[in-house]
Amino acid sequence: MRSSSTKQLAENNRGLNGRFFTLHSRLYNALGLGLRNDEGGRRWCCTDVETQRHVVRSIDAFLDCISSDTSQHPLIKESVADIVPALGTTLLQKNEAVMKLASKVFVKMVNVIPNSIIESCVLDVVHPVSSSLSSCHVPVVISCSTALNLILSYLSSKRDREVWKVLEETETIDNIIHHIRCGGSKPAEFFLETISLLSKILWRWPSSRFCVWNDDGLLEVLGSLSLEPILSVRAAVLQLYSTIALCSNGAKKLLDSGKPPLRLMVESMDSLNPNFLQLAGFTLAECFAANEEGRLKMIESYCEPLVKAIIHGLSNWSLHSGKLSKDQMSLIKGACCVSKIICWPGKHHSYFWKLGIESVLLKLFIDDFHIKLLSHQFLSSEELEAIARDCLSANFLPVLKPHVWDILGGLAANCAEDFNVQMLKSERHLNFLITCACLGFVDSFRSTRQSCQNAVNEPVSRAVLLMIYSPSKYIASEAKSVLSGLLKLNAKEDIKYILNTLNATSSGIYYPVSNNLQVINLISLACYSGLPQYRRYVLKNQGIKILFSFVQNLSRNHVHTERMNTSLHFCDHNMKMCCYECEEDWQGEEMFLLFGLLGLAELVHHLGSMKGHVDWFVKQFEFTEAQIITKVQEICINSCASGPRWYGSYLLSYFGFYGFPSKLGNMIGNVFSEDEHTNLTLILANQEHVNAHGVIVRVRCPSLLPSRELPLEAKTSTGHFGGREVRLSAHVNHQALLKLLEYVYSGHLRAGEDLVKRLRTLAKHCNLQPLLQMLCRNRPKWRTPVPSFDLTSALGPNGFHFSDIILEAKGDKFEDWMCEACSLLQPHLHAHKVILCASCDHMRALLCSGMQESQSESIKVDLGWEALVRLVNWFYSGKLLPKPKYGCLWHNLNEKEKFDEVIPYVELYCLSDSWLLEDLHKECSRVIAACLDSVNMAIKIIQIAAVCFQWDLVDLAAKFIAPHYHRLRNSGDLLELHEELVDVIRVASVRLSQRSDHI
Question: Where does the record place the BTB domain (predicted)?
Fold first, then answer.
């Protein structure tokens, strides 16, 4: 038995030498000078400076003898449990000389001791180290920052909450900001470590970002540091900018702060810089590219250098032993992520082609050997296909292939119509990429019929679709030619399989199809529909009927799909973004609807105008033409994404219906035929005339009106303008003018083919490009925002001339109130009866009934100013604007400020009920529910709602309070509420308990 124990001890002590045990003994002799036993167990306590110094040096010497082989020894773990309290207590004594030594030893300990052991006592390490960041001694601040940097680099997310609590208690962020702001001439290492630590904190804890980006003094210092010649400091500043820009509000602050962040970003991405600095620049660019404002500012300010940097990042690399280094791969991925700007239209596309993007993509896709093969003068199509198959099957940089397809698809979708081979550096390289994409698409589609576990095949499928429907005739023709040949084998079987799958889905038959496979099926059908030799077979097999039933089912049942591997989100690193609202996207969660409508529109497009196919169409669908138009209009109105709305409108153009349906447009369109409140007469050359509402024409089609303003004598005594006449050109036809005004008023029009030609001329003259595109039946351009029906510009100087009613808010006068149009001191808006009456039946009854209000120049609305602004914006745009603060802006408001943000929506909720504004009522309810985050706010809302008899709102707030009911009742916080309201909360609490018990 003794022999066995001896062997085990020897095994445990393997790698430990006599020096280790000597230093270990000295360590504990030193620790013994301060170790005390009390009721809470052993603790270390010593105030003698020399003893502290002796202990720290003993710890330092002991750490020096620990190697990677011995670091996991049980003695090490036991020793660390005693070292950390001693070192931490010493550091907190605030003696300058000992602090310098102790902070350096902390850094050594974190470097030497395994992460798992440090994490077991991480709070005991973080507390003294973060507390010591308040020190005014530079070496201490540097060492403590370094130690925390190391700890946060490997800290498990399970400890996030505990560690963040310690950092808050020790005011770590405030101390770091203070040091950076007051850094002055401190050494570069000081800024490097403090800025890097701040970046790590901001990345890990998004809630910490507000106090950083909201500090103007800090941003000013960072701007100065961005000019530092020391590259590591520049990289640290970029890293901090990137973590700030992970917050939407922070990104906006950086973009609004001037050029330092963008300038530093672009300069750092230059290929002459070391990889770490380039990567820091690309990371910031990727954060800025997350929303439209960032993309536009980068492209407007630094388009050419930005594109050059992306091209160099994608191409400036080489293989070593057949592999890319980790740094090179990170840089290429960073460049790929920034290249997502290709997915949006803009002037940057011409620079990409000019710099040979096709050859750059080819280098990412195939190895040098195959590139040399392509340089041979004479290669048959069969040889090219063989090389392409070889390249697709090769395992050459596989992680980059989805990026290549996304970039290629974005380029194809945003090409100009006149794009040609003269704009290319290598026609052969582009053609080979097209061949590879088509081949990859065919193979992936046919393979996914058997198995589709992930989204790896979607990028190549989408790229081929975008090439088939590219505005560039050259790219579209090349892609169609290659794809037609590749699909020849089994094409009929493919089409039949797709249509059967879609038909089964829309019929409610269970069919085990993943979201990804369904998307690829829809993309494949759209591609087949774009190829003449296969389109006939799709039509023959009731493709239009099946697709229409499919999209109708999607719209009726509000079917949405989660984002998959779309070009917006193809970067695979973890970015903890915050405060970003969902940007209106081209496809959003409606990919099925988008690709279904695209395929359907393409099939209808090749049938020509449906006027010649009404009988056939009705027979196919068992619907009347009017019913079909109504169903597609509903899809356009109810869809949240631009893509489905564009393709729905495009589809409607083949039924003689041109424009963009919307709820507000339909309401405003109802007043087109009414003469009430008209104040503009459009006179044609033959003296025929049309009465119109000047404000709607001014906002929706200003080209119909003269550019000069009305003369002052045209004003009435109320400050409003009377009627006026505008004479139109002799080329304007009366019937065409009426149809154009139909579009101006409602956002869409109905016209026969005989009138369309005249409408095209008139729309072109009036610069109504979206209408002209629909009249010409041009395919929608990928990622082009759908035109919105928005009249809010009429509330500014653009519409003052046509205002005929003033809306006054309740409340006192504002001392600093100033109006551009009149001298009234009461907060008010200059509005327009025609829009108010069209948008709201209550307003119509008020203003058109002959009652006293209809004769008045102003109306008092029982709303505060903020609520009135939102109400009128709703009437003019169908949107509840401005939106309440969100994200960190919201979370950093105090309780009163939050309530002030919510109260306008509570006011509107009550008013919308009595005014029968159902959609506004629902939207206010949604906003209030999203903003409820405190019991006090909920109690106040209950009180207001009860006074206004809004019992649904009372129930909403009561459900929020329900989990806290017993605590509030016992504390007496509910005494201010009427007994009936307390009972509502009690019932909500009981129901909550019953549901919990049931679960």
Answer: 803-884
pLDDT digits (tens, 9 = 90+) for 643-669: 999 999 999 999 999 999 999 999 999
Q: Positive or negative, the Cα torsion across 510, 514, 517, 523?
A: positive
Report yes or no on 403 lying in a domain.
Answer: no
Q: Which residue, chain included where needed, has tokens 């099946």?
A: 546
> Alpha-carbon distance 102 to 56, whole Å?
6
Structure tokens at 394: 């090769």
Task: Supply the range of the domain harboring residue 120.
Answer: 18-170
Sign of CA dihedral 324, 327, 332, 337: positive
Compute the distance between CA of residue 779 and CA of residue 526 in angstroms, rounded to an integer: 13
> Which run of H or E residues covers position 911?
helix 895-914
| Within a domain: 8 | no
Top pLDDT among 192 and 857 is at 192
Helix ranges (H only) for 915-964 are: 918-931, 935-947, 951-961
Phi, psi of 766, deg, nearest 5? -85, 5
Could you tell me if 623 and 698 lie in one domain?
A: no
* Residue 877, token pair as written in the block: 């745009």
The residue out of 630, 655, 680 marking a domain boundary is: 655
- pLDDT bin (cut points 50, 70, 90) of residue 9 is very low
Instruction: Please give the DSSP secondary-structure letter assigned to residue 320.
Output: B
Average pLDDT of 671-678?
A: 91
3-state secondary structure 792-847: HHHHCHHHHCCCCEEEEECCCCCCCCCCCCCCCCCCEEEECHHHHHHHCHHHHHHH
CA–CA dist 733, 741 (Å, integer): 12
Looking at the structure, tell me whether residues 703 and 742 fall in a common domain: yes
Burial 185-207 (b: 16+ CB within 10 A, else e): eeeebbbbbbbbbbbbbbbbbbe
- Whether the upstream peptide bond of residue 114 has omega within 30° of 0, thus cis, is no
Judged by DSSP in three states, 375 sits in coil
Tens of pLDDT, residue by residue over 696-712, are: 999 999 999 987 654 43
Tokens matching residue 132: 């010591």
Residue owning tokens 């270990």:
24
Q: Are residues 982 and 922 in the same domain?
A: yes
| Residue 38 within any structural domain of the chain | yes
Q: What is the CATH number of the domain that holds 675?
A: 3.30.710.10
Q: Are residues 152 and 28 in the same domain?
A: yes
Q: pTM for the complete prediction?
A: 0.91
pLDDT-derived band at 560, boundaries 50, 70, 90: low
762: Cβ contacts below 8 Å, ≥ 6 apart? 732, 733, 736, 737, 740
- Spatial CA neighbour of 248 closest among 585, 569, 583, 577: 577
Tell me: do 965 and 929 sit in the same domain: yes
Determine how many CB atoms are found less than 10 A away from the CB of residue 892: 14
CB within 8 Å of 366: residues ≥ 6 apart: 391, 394, 396
Is residue 717 domain-shared with residue 645, that is, in the same domain?
no
Gap between the Cα atoms of 25 and 62, Å rounded: 9
**Does residue 199 sit within a domain?**
no
Query: 852 falls in which pLDDT band (50, 70, 90)?
Result: confident
Q: Are residues 508 and 640 in the same domain?
A: yes
Residue 660 half-sphere exposure toward CB, CA atoms < 13 A:
22
Number of domains, the chain: 4
What distance in Å separates the CA atoms of residue 341 and residue 299, rounded to the nearest whole number? 9
Assess whether pLDDT exceeds 50 at residue 18: yes
End position of a domain, from candidates 150, 170, 190: 170
pLDDT for residue 520 is more than 80: yes
Query: What burial class does residue 970 get, using C-beta atoms within 10 Å of its C-beta: 0-12 exposed, 13-18 middle, 19+ buried?
Result: exposed
Neighbours of 704 (CB within 10 A): 21
Of 29-38, 417-426, 680-689, 950-959, the least confident? 29-38
The CATH number that applies at residue 137 is 1.25.10
Tell me: pLDDT of 713 over 80. Answer: no
